[in-house]
Amino acid sequence: MKLHFNKTYLAITIILLIIEILIAKYLKTGFIRHTFGDFLVVILMYCFFKSFLEINSLKLAISVLIFSFIIEFLQLANLLSLLNLQNNKFVSIVLGSTFNVTDLIAYTLGIIITLIIEFQSQKLCTK
């Protein structure tokens, strides 16, 4: 792993961040807010790190997935209340406030799709 700037991944990161902000700001319920946003957030994190690091795609994807699962299980332990941050809207949006198994599924599907796209694009580059 070494530092390496990649403007394509940075552009994707910025686009996904804007989409996530719009979802958080304008959608309060429904599939897009509660599931698709979680699907996108792991892709956003993956692309963010790929913007600045030359790192093995599979290792990064697994790391992002593990981090996402840890955050989700901390919600199950009611982390925000333990840290007395349950009334902090920003922290509640970023870390989430309720555990949901469907979030774990969304994270996993997001990483699977990311890896499929990565491996397909790597195949195309080697041809």
TrEMBL record:
This is DUF2809 domain-containing protein. The chain crosses the membrane at residues 7-24, 30-49, 61-84, 90-117. Keywords: Membrane, Transmembrane, Transmembrane helix. It comes from the Bacteria.
